[in-house]
TrEMBL record:
It comes from Bradyrhizobium brasilense. This is ATP dependent DNA ligase domain-containing protein. One of its GO terms (biological process) is DNA repair. CDD domains: Adenylation_DNA_ligase_LigD_LigC. It holds the Pfam family DNA_ligase_A_M.
Length: 201
């Protein structure tokens, strides 16, 4: 099993969504976390456990290889969207629809050999938006909101049956492992919560 060069930042579970002006809020999509690393024509899609799934998700692979930039590392969530536009984890997990899986990317760790992890999040977001200024099927920029709207956004996410919210401090660097600068608040009525409880039982 290859060792990934970049380890993911893991959100800290929370019960309250931060409401301060320095927080960015993203919808939590129900899928598989992936670190996408491109080096010329070589592409790897690393899972949290270090497995390379580049051959599993052709849409993500082809979108990354079509980008004008030859070397980059991005962080995101591989999802399978249903007809209602929401992520469908059961269909994703079945592996019968691998050719439809796409990536919602929310962070960039490196580009053209430059390590961006020490930059504050809001600067990394700007770099990421530039990298994917041209939309290509297979990789999408994850939307976010900033500031006091967080708790209201979380309530609406729950009403829509989404998994929850991840809030991130806009001025912090990217750190591997569990981070208190990223707070994940889950919708307790979402099926993902049932999977967590089953894993713990």
């Amino acid at each position: 099993m290859p060792t990934p060069l970049f380890e993911p930042c893991i959100p800290t579970p929370g019960k309250v969504v931060p409401a301060g002006k320095d927080w960015l809020h993203e919808i939590k999509h129900d899928g598989y976390r992936l670190i996408v690393q491109r080096d010329g024509t070589r592409l790897r899609l690393f899972t949290r456990n270090g497995y390379d799934w580049a051959d599993r998700f052709p849409l993500i692979r082809e979108a990354a290889l079509r980008n004008r930039c030859q070397r980059f590392v991005i962080d995101g969530e591989a999802v399978l969207l249903g007809t209602d536009g929401r992520s469908d984890f059961n269909r994703l997990h079945s592996r019968r629809h691998n050719d439809e899986v796409q990536l919602y990317t929310f962070d960039i760790l490196g580009i053209e050999g430059d390590n961006l992890r020490e930059l504050p999040l809001h600067e990394r977001k700007t770099r990421l938006a530039r990298l994917f200024a041209r939309r290509v099927d297979g990789i999408f920029l994850s939307d976010f909101e900033q500031g006091e709207i967080g708790p209201d956004l979380y309530r609406h996410a729950c009403l829509m049956g989404l998994e929850g919210l991840v809030s991130k401090h806009r001025d912090r660097p990217y750190r591997a492992g569990r981070s208190r600068d990223w707070i994940k608040v889950k919708n307790r009525n979402h099926p993902a919560m049932s999977r967590v409880m089953e894993a713990l039982s």
